[in-house]
Specification:
By secondary structure, the chain is an alpha+beta fold. Helices cover 22% and strands 21% of the residues. This is Hydrogenase maturation nickel metallochaperone HypA. InterPro entries: FdhE-like_sf.
């Protein structure tokens, strides 16, 4: 039987999730769609510190290429 799930057990999946959390720590690029302010943060539901808007675009910076 073919298994398309990339992890053989729940512990491996938990380790993968923890790795993503560690990679995101202080590495989330945030752009406020309301006022245009940009900053780096470590939480995915950050609120703009300039205008308190919740309309924030977030991109994990580890997804950007190094070159």
């Amino acid at each position: 039987m073919f298994n398309s799930f990339p992890f053989s057990n729940a512990d491996q999946l938990d380790q993968w999730h923890q790795g993503i959390k560690n990679a995101n720590r202080n590495n989330i690029f945030c752009h406020c769609r309301t006022c245009g302010y940009e900053w780096m943060d470590s939480i995915l539901d950050a609120v703009c510190t300039k205008c308190d808007s919740k309309d924030v675009e977030r991109i994990s910076s580890w997804q950007f290429p190094d070159d």
